[in-house]
Amino acid sequence: FMERLTVSLVLYRPDSGLLRATLASLVVASREAGVVPDLFLIDNGGSEEALAFLALPDDWRVHVFSGQGNVGFGCGHNLSLEGAGDYHLILNPDLELAPDALCEARAFMRAHPECGLLAPAAHWDDGRVQYLCKRVPAVFDLFLRGFAPGWLRQRFAARLARYEMRDVIGDQVVWDPPLVSGACMLFRTAVLREAGGFDPRFFLYFEDYDLSLRVARKTRIAYVPAVKVVHHGGHAARKGLRHIGLFVRGAATFFRLHGWKWF
Questions:
Q1: How far is the C-alpha of 218 from the C-alpha of 237, rounded, in Å?
Q2: pTM (2 decimals)?
Q3: What is the gyration radius of the CA atoms in the chain, in angstroms?
């Protein structure tokens, strides 16, 4: 990146081991790309221990935001927007970049000035594909995916596969996927600023879907399989009642803003 790259991570009681792995992968990918990024670490609470033992290169500029309390995922990332460079990478603290991820991302962005937001190819730890790009869901799709028993999910497997864009996500670039995941988003910062960042009405869940739809009105989004990541997270429904509540609240806000579709 001849241009300036900034990276922001929002932390809330992060798993220290996963955070270290995320940052180690960012260090390697940055070196491969010959870039020294500015790193924004937004501490939404409970991150002191994890932040105390970070081994980062001496020439990196690290900005820690703390004391704001738990302002949520989107509002946390928005804190880094003022200081963002020409490119801004939004990264989850449970996600590892492939060594060549930033090289590949830069090459694609340079070759395609019409692309304002790049989404990577994600895999689980065991190598299975993780379908992070989605089509706009109906309420029923979210119920199926998050809360339905296995037999019911099985019955609607084709419907869920369509929601997860399994028919098109693979080894080819996919232009204009409707929704991409906030776990890893590489923006041209001008586009992110023009969109106003994340909508503060979302606390956790669906702020990335909302931002995808708003960004798509201003630029093109691309799923780029050459940019590879491993994502260890996900599964709101398995995280307990509080997360289920946040998931439902986020979904309701999303449908209220973009139109209710039940089935």
A1: 33
A2: 0.95
A3: 18
CA atoms of 126 and 131, how far apart (whole Å): 14
Each residue's pLDDT tens digit in the chain (263 positions)? 668 999 999 999 999 999 999 999 999 999 999 999 999 999 999 999 999 888 899 999 999 999 999 999 999 999 999 999 999 999 999 999 999 999 999 999 999 999 999 999 999 999 999 999 999 999 999 999 988 999 999 999 999 999 999 999 999 999 999 999 999 999 999 999 999 999 999 999 999 999 999 999 999 999 999 999 999 976 655 678 888 899 999 999 999 999 999 99
Report strand pairing: 115-123 vs 129-130.
antiparallel
Q: Going by DSSP bridges, is the β-strand pair 184-188/87-91 parallel, antiparallel, or unpaired?
A: antiparallel
Region for residue 157 given its phi and psi (left: phi exceeds 0; alpha: psi -120 to 50; beta: otherwise): alpha
Question: Which residues are bridge partners to 130 per DSSP?
Answer: 122
